């Protein structure tokens, strides 16, 4: 029994998921537990993101797509939205230089038009500064909603059919994939192999609904600001164990 238990907790990291999606949840609860305002949780969440990005990059992960703000998050109190929207500005000054040194490339998905001017400017600066980097892609999902992404894709494809540039019979999974916001990612890594959600919630909340059709899902009770390199390794190890079982069948 003891042996079995040890075996189950042993970290197995031989197969690294190339694309990991993360739903960074629990910032508010983390702050509340410390009797701090919710926004302090987001600040701590940004720190956690920095550390996890560097750890993932060292492990050989190619793409990290992080859910930073959903289209539904606009309904939060105005002050909190303002604070989150200001994070990319702080992120650019304090965090991007270290990521740049680590050869990390920053990209984003989501509706840009509704983002405040300064937020967009900070993100675009980060995208521009790191565009020649060839390491891990840190892909921010900001003002992102998965169903809206699919609606937009259907509209584009319908227009191509209407313009007689495309036959309905030529619509394939690959073609749809090439119209989604993730189409800018390296072709082989467009879809996450593993999706992690922190804070014990068991939902995917409109995060990449098309792209995660075959992803392994990993849920942990840890709140996002507490998620660190060892938590990432545990998640990858869990993914490996599932993978190994699958391979053995
Ligand atoms: C969910 O926790 C978290 C968010 C809505 C924001 C996540 C943002 C970051 C971690 C920073 C991202 C960095 C940049 C540069 C944009 P919650 O507030 O829903 O937590 P709760 O469920 O405990 O209330």
For this entry, give a set of tags.
single chain; 249 residues; alpha/beta; Undecaprenyl pyrophosphate synthetase; six-stranded parallel beta sheet; 9 helices; 6 strands; disordered N terminus; binds farnesyl diphosphate
Q: How would you briefly describe this protein structure?
A:
This protein is of the alpha/beta class and 249 residues long. Helix content is 46%, strand content 14%. The protein has one domain (19-240): Undecaprenyl pyrophosphate synthetase.
Describe the structure.
- The N terminus is likely disordered.
- By secondary structure, the chain is an alpha/beta fold.
- It has a single domain, classed as Undecaprenyl pyrophosphate synthetase (3-Layer(aba) Sandwich).
- It has a 6-stranded parallel sheet with strand order 3-4-2-1-5-6, with helices on both faces.
- Strand 3, helix 6 and strand 4 form a beta-alpha-beta unit.
- The longest helix is centred in the N-terminal third of the chain and has 22 residues.
- The protein is globular, with a radius of gyration of 19 Å.
- It contains 9 helices and 6 strands; from the N terminus they run αβααβααβαβααββα.
- Helix 3 runs parallel beside helix 4 and helix 4 runs parallel beside helix 6.
- The structure holds farnesyl diphosphate.
- Farnesyl diphosphate binds next to helix 2, helix 3, strand 2 and helix 4.
